[in-house]
Amino acid sequence: MKRREFLLKAAGFAVMLSVPVFAKAASNKPLKATAITQVFGDGINLTGVAIEYKSPLEASSINAKSFSVAGHKISKIYLSDAVDGAPKDSGKFVTLKLERTNLLVKKPPKQNQDQSKGPGKAGDKQENSPKYTVPRLTIDTKNAAITSSAVKNLIVDDFKQLEFKDPKTGQTLRYNLFVPKNYDKAKSYPLVLFMHDAGVTGTNTIATLIQGNGATSWAGAEIQAKHLCFVLAPQFDEIVADDDSQVSGSLDTTINLINELAGVYSIDKDRLYTTGQSGGGMLSIAMDIKFPNFFAASYLVACQWDEKLVAPMAKQNLFIVVSQDDTKAYPGQTAIVNELQANGAKVARGVWDAKWSAQESKEAFEKLISEGANVNFVSFKKGSVLADGQTNSGAGHVNTWKFAYDLTPVLEWILTRKKPL
Description:
single chain; 421 residues; Rossmann fold; 28% strand; disordered N terminus
């Protein structure tokens, strides 16, 4: 089964939309409609529909009022020459941009959840992979109608789904790999490792790509335009790190996979980076402790570890983000940073508002980085990651990565770090 066919069937996706019959081009009927999705910090969402016509259309012939999609509001309409193409004066594709509504996949934290119990023990097999939950949409219209027959998952479709059978550990690891556009084996590229949280644990390989933008943010046009890099996103089917600071065999298997990929592709082993949210961030910490010179920098989101173990990380390049509403990660990382500082790390601290504009976040970032520290510790101020009605520490925890991977200056800082001498 082809990868995109799998994604389409997994979504159970169909959209019906009304399309106008143009008086000047009555024979130019729509051929195909493709739903367009995009991953945001809180997960994957329907963002548009592209309708392909037999012949190119002119912008003057398009009437926005002639189009409608049931259950959705159209925010923009334009012509292009591809499903995901940029706006043009003419083209065979009419793209309808839709206002965001419900997520296609959603696993909100349970209110009053007892976070102290943790996700389980390292090595426990679990099946928590999120699934698409899109209803079938139809439209009644006096004009011609068409049903979408394909889905374009922006950025997600650019990842390959693969498996690694590790001869050293005996484990089989599912993973997603993004290869930079126009990859040239004569050049050398960095690699970013993203590891998901325990709530995404399971066998659905693409779950880590659609739960939030921890992986896709590095593969998007904004980052790739300046920093061509590989992105590796494993899909773990077991708890990889637990609240007792224990890890599963997935730690060694993932490191072995990176070494394997570095032998297949032209990957610069001096520019390897790791990041993860919650359990994935905990595994990043464990990797940094066990292999202190493996990664050039780490972006640690909403995670904690036994501070008595972190001394080997004191000289490493770290950017840490937690929420003050997170009753585990906030005190946990505070203790870690204090321990790192006691072992010689230069630390910069900042309190940010998660809902700041991009410009406000950039200014705060520049102020923090101006201190020249190798360990940068940011806490989102209390209440800033919470939506209306959310008060528990579980929401304060999982909402952290809803914002963390939208901090483009932080991602760029990670990708410009070099291994400490």
